[in-house]
Amino acid sequence: MSFEAKRCGVQFSPPSVVLIYEDKETKRVRKRIIPVRNFSKYSDHSMAAERLKNHPRHRDYLEGVSQSQLEKLHIILRDHMQGLSLEESLTSFRLDPDEDLNKLDDEKLARKKGQMDEMFERNRRRKDDPDFVYNVEKDFTKTTQEKCSWDEESDDGF
């Protein structure tokens, strides 16, 4: 049997992964609720996602769902178990250029770095790409820097 995953989400009570898929043979769209067992607020999300993806009962259905997508769903479930709201959990997946990454704990920093790596790979230009240009040169306008009072006073020949 072959299945094509259309949408994927989570259900908090009971903790489950909800999969909307299409059966290729019958062309019917169906919904499958996959319970997430033995998962607590202290569990490792990547191991739980890998275990779910390789489970013999769900393997065929989750073949079209990426490992990173399942990890994100497990992170949302774990955040809910830790008492965070859905909005707080989803904001941790967004990249804010003004956010100070020095103030994040190790887990959130690793999550942000993973997102940045994923975005870099998505935007990366390779030699095989049709819009690849070798040796791109750009001119950047140089802004004049403001002079500070200590710059003018310490002009002792240095």
Layout of strands and helices, then pairs:
Blueprint: E1 3-11, E2 16-23, E3 28-35, H1 45-53, H2 67-81, H3 86-91, H4 106-123, H5 149-153
Antiparallel strand pairs: 1-2, 2-3
Helix pairs in contact: 1-2
State the helical fraction.
25-40%
How many strands? 3
| Total DSSP helices | 5
Poorly predicted parts:
none
Shape: flat
For the CA atoms, what is the radius of gyration? 24 Å
What is the beta-strand fraction? 15-25%
Q: Could you tell me the mean pLDDT?
A: 87
Tell me the structural class.
alpha+beta
Strand order of the largest sheet: 1-2-3
* String of helices and strands: EEEHHHHH
From the N-terminal CA to the C-terminal CA, the straight-line distance is: 77 Å
Major sheet, described briefly? 3 strands, antiparallel
Short descriptors:
34% helix; alpha+beta; 158 residues; 5 helices
Please describe what this structure looks like.
- The protein has 158 residues and is of the alpha+beta class.
- It has helices at 45-53, 67-81, 86-91, 106-123, 149-153; strands spanning 3-11, 16-23, 28-35.
- It has a three-stranded antiparallel β-sheet with strand order 1-2-3, with helices on one face.
- A hairpin with a 4-residue loop joins strand 1 (3-11) and strand 2 (16-23).
- The longest helix has 18 residues, at 106-123.
- The radius of gyration is 24 Å and the shape is flat.
- It starts with a strand and ends in a 5-residue tail after the last helix.
